[in-house]
Amino acid sequence: MARPAATRPPIVALKNVQLADGPVMLFDGVDLSLEARARACLVGRNGAGKSTLLKVLTGALEPDNGERFVQPGLRSAFVPQEPVITGDTVLDHAISGGAQFWDAEAELQAFGLDPQKSAKGLSGGEIRRVALAKAFAEAPDLILLDEPTNHLDIFAIETLERRLLESRSAALVISHDRAFLERTTNRCFWLAHRKVRTLDAGYAEFELWADKVEAEEQENLRRLTKQIEREAYTASRSVTARRTRNEGRLRALDALRQQRATIMKDVSRPLELEIDAGGTSGKRVAEARGIGKSFGARVIVQNFSTRIIRGDRVAIVGPNGAGKTTLVKLLLGELEPDAGSVKLGTGLEIVYLDQGRTELKPEMTLWDALTPSGGDSIIVRGFPKHVAAYAKDFLFRDGQLRQPVSTLSGGERNRLLLARALAKPANLLVLDEPTNDLDMETLDLLEDLLADYEGTLLLVSHDRDFIDRLATSTIALDGRGGAVETPGGWTDFMRQNPGFFEQSERLTGKAAPPPPPVAAPRPTAKLTFKDQHRLQEAEKEVAELPAAIARLEARLHDPALYAKSPKEFDQLTVEMEALRAKLEKAELDWLELEAKREGLATGG
Questions:
Q1: 589 close to 534: Cβ distance less than 8 angstroms
Q2: How far apart are CA 116 and CA 87, in angstroms?
Q3: What does the longest C-alpha to C-alpha distance in the chain come to?
Q4: Residues 433, 161: Cα–Cα separation, whole Å
Q5: Tens of pLDDT along 183-229?
Q6: DSSP type of residue 119
Q7: Any bridge partners for residue 309, and if so which?
Q8: Are the C-beta atoms of residues 37 and 2 closer than 8 Å to each other?
């Protein structure tokens, strides 16, 4: 008979751990322990130190004080927020930590990856799946996952859920994905006010428990405040009392005030989210009739129609690579369909939050990002507001205003994008993966904001819970050109359309290959030697440059780099911008030359 979790010996534990980041105390007496096969989540606000705590657990970071216990011989695997893939193939990376060849191959295939796939030019989702496959292939006693669902589509997330539930490893996970945590965890660690509280239950029970804890703390603070008021009143009335007695009372009152000040310092200031729905758009926002779009033999969508009405909140879902962002651009009129038509309504004020964060250049400061036209003010919903005051609404400190964007965490960068987007009036808000890296509290505020939003919302997301809470309808793409729209969110769609995704590579989130193209007529002409050479060159650049850019971004994201070597930081920034420009040109050249080649082949 298995012993209860509380009586089983831990395989890893922290006791009274303290750690400071300069003058800021991150942990002040953290206690945490995991026993074999426990599956726990670590939750807390952005900036609380969750990722840092994982590094302390792995031994990559030494605490200032306290103890770290690790069971002798413990094998652990750590998947960070931004994994770096090495080797020529993904299999090379998967076996680089000592995993057996056949185990690594099996895990890669479980996550929908060809083991011999080149490790260069991987998408964000592929990088994440390779890193997860490597971790599971090593069969560790403990697996630590930092935001593992970022960049994964819903099907890859479901695969990860299954692997965690099947694994014999203990697990500690940082994630913002409620549905994922509810399915996989049986314990919660809550990092707040520099300490960790423990709930011996899964995440499904966390929010009710956390609300109760916060209510108790508010009541304790209220009682302390009333006690201070009584003591202050008594002290002011006892000036004629004996001096020694009065001084003792004053010392006690001062101690109470210091206690309250310490508590108030830990009280989290809420994020202040507001949105201006702008002017009223026409009743019809967008209408697509029989639209189709392909890139070569790859069919994105065919013969799809929809009508989006003012106030609709439309979610767009599907496997990675299915063409969700392409569909958004079609519906916004940014991309011409190959067939059919799209008509936009009148009076549209569109704000687009891009999942790639391309608006944020690593070298720009937070101040520059909020004031792209210069100055010290930003127009917020029609009125000027000082940039420092607006940044504070999004929980940024004054000291961060002059720091490069590259030093911000993933959650901070997403908050910065929200700050930029929500400053503008918008009656059509387009959010492409808005939940990545956001903490639960910010997600709750964003959900409340969008639920009350009077404009129209287009939402691309893999967060099932987020979609279920917000969407009035869901458009799903299967990766083979099929598209279906259903009222309601993700759960409603899956209930009403069983089997819609079955022919896609369901376990992986990788879209199934398109059907073989119809045999084309015999070419009547072909590309010139120069164009053919450039087409091949562009294909190679499109495949290889993203990995080079990712490597530079990883180096630029090192918070110590700018302080240590501003010259190297500037040089790397210039190199990355040059690579991005080169990639953009390669993509445009490829599209143009591929279209030209097809036109020649069909006599068009």
A1: yes
A2: 11
A3: 110
A4: 20
A5: 999 999 999 888 999 999 999 999 889 888 877 777 766 776 666 66
A6: S
A7: 284
A8: no
Angle at 229 between CA 223 and CA 230, to 5 degrees: 90
Bridge partners of 456, per DSSP, are 428
- How far are the Cα atoms of 206, 278, 379 from residue 428, in angstroms, in the given order? 34, 9, 19
Query: Nearest 5°: CA angle at 80, between 405 and 129?
Result: 110
Q: Is the pLDDT of residue 244 over 80?
A: no
| Look-up of token digits 């010290």 | 376
Report the C-alpha gap between 349 and 484 in whole angstroms. 27
Place of tokens 């019809």: 284
Q: Is the dihedral of CA 150, 557, 272, 460 positive or negative?
A: negative
Is the sign of the CA dihedral 461, 467, 473, 476 positive or negative? positive
Q: Give the residues across from 295 on adjacent strands.
A: 298
For the record, the structure tokens of 117 come out as 């796939």
**Could you tell me which residue, 276 or 15, shows the higher pLDDT?**
15
CB atoms within 10 A of CB 542: 16
Q: Tell me, what DSSP letter sits at residue 286?
A: E
pLDDT of residue 599: 62
Q: Provide the pLDDT for residue 234.
A: 65
Mean of the per-residue pLDDT values of the chain: 81
Sequence-ordered strand ranges (E) for 390-455? 428-432
By the 8 A CB rule, do 449 and 402 touch?
Answer: no
For residue 146, what are the β-bridge partners?
174
C-alpha closest to that of 458 among 485, 428, 484 = 428
Q: State residue 523's pLDDT score.
A: 40
CB count in 10 Å sphere of residue 356: 10
The residue with tokens 């091949």 is 536
The helix (H) or strand (E) run that includes residue 298 is: strand 298-309
The residues that bridge with 145 in the sheet, in sequence order, are 79, 173
Tokens 């026409």 — which residue?
Answer: 282
Q: What pLDDT is stored for residue 362 in this prediction?
A: 75
